[in-house]
Protein: Circularly permuted type 2 ATP-grasp protein
Organism: Keguizhuia sedimenti
Amino acid sequence: MPTFFDEMYDADRHVREHYRKFEAWQNGQAQERIKAKRAEADLIFRQVGITFAVYGDNAGTERLIPFDIIPHIIPAEEWSRMQQGLVQRVRALNMFAHDIYHDQNIVKAGIVPAEQIFRNSQYRPEMQGVSVASDIYAHIAGIDIVRTEGGEFYALEDNLRVPSGVSYVLENRKMMMRLFPELFESHRIAPVAHYPNMLLENLRSVAPQGVEDPTVVVMTPGMYNSAFFEHAFLAQQMGVELVEGQDLFVDNNAVYMRTTHGPKRVDVIYRRVDDDFLDPLAFRPDSTLGVPGLLSVYRAGRVSLANAIGTGVADDKSIYPFVPDMIRFYLSEDPLLQNVPTYQCRKKSDLEYVLANISSLVVKEVHGAGGYGMLVGPASSSGEIENFRQRVLANPGGYIAQPTLALSTCPTYVESGIAPRHIDLRPFVLSGEKISILPGGLTRVALKEGSLVVNSSQGGGTKDTWVLEEDDAKPYR
């Protein structure tokens, strides 16, 4: 029977110090009040339209992301250590992205094999030699963090293309403050409401050279995208326009937005559209989501895109095993956040090990996302395992494997009452003139007993994440 690190209780079932005030409050709550507050949260989230598409869900195309009212609490000292590791990791990833599209020193040094980059489906040869503002590729990064049975934090995944979920961080906090204001009087919790201002400042700081008062827009694939709520929410919170590809056009080597007052020059596009669909003249000719000619303006340095085209090669799961080497190569530092041990099925010895132990491993497609394209060996049937074995054999380079991690648990309200459920954490790291991190991030929780799949697209829920400030004795203001 595996052991799991419990965020709230130690091995002797004593409440951890940073949870003591919360547990004392929780023990004083009538169950009727908690039940009513949980129902109120569901009602408000439904009214506001905070939904997410769950693919394959027969109940419909969209549903609420379940919200749990027991927070994930992180003490200041732990957060400080994690934050340092996140800054280090994102700095190295940005340097890697710049390097592979310019001098390729890490390839020449023999650290990352050339085929891992240039045969990667996310590599964009159109970006070779192109300079981007401040040499930043991943302006917004979501780094998935897990804690294992020993209490150590690991970086599980780097999301550098169009990482989603930050709107739920902000809405979860607003909901907790509305439902239980007394908790914010008894705890000093680092605020998160300033994130839209942080994001806007970050985006404005990477405008094309010479632009004094940049116009920023959020570009969405449209209302049928699973994360459309977030696109609209962030545009509204930043006070900028939400646009689709058809709202933009290229003229005289610049990007313009159609408005009721005529064309308006656009300088920075926070795009939530994948590379393939951004410009039908450069990538997929059948795309109706993009802007014809956008790449040419971008290559000329007359518009900034966040995140940069081609960033996906740096967050591909086949590149993930090399991130500690990147940190040592570019920064001459040892990694502060460790990787999860990873087997690369493209290697003969790793493939043999994975095939021999597949029932005890987590096997992932290198281009997979959202919990799709993966096998959790211990939770799979013999038929599912054999089917996945054949898929790996047919394309070994398309898969990696990792030990089945004993993800930490956090008490969670479920139908039977309060029970431990597995969680992870996605902090959001902004890179511009400086690197800044939203305190905490999105805590995702696997609501099914024993499940290790926390993704919202797979039916997981979320929690408010509290980073306690140094002096938690004083009330929150």
Summary: Residues 162 and 274 are 7 Å apart (CA to CA).
